[in-house]
Amino acid sequence: MPTDICRQFMLETQLRRQRPNEEEQGLPQPPLELPYDASRPCIVLPRPETIHIPPADLRATIEGRRTVRAYAAQPLALDELSWLLWATQGVQRVISRPSTVRAVPSAGGRHAFETLVLANRVAGVAPGLYRFAAGEHKLVEQDMAPDIARRVAAAAREQDFVAESAAAFIWVAVLGRMHWRYGDRGYRYLFLDAGHVCQNLYLAAEAIGCGACAVGAFHDDLLNGLLGLDGEEQFVAYMGTVGKKKAHTD
Question: What percent of the residues of the chain are helix, what percent strand, and what percent coil, each to the nearest 5?
Answer without folding.
Answer: 35, 25, 40
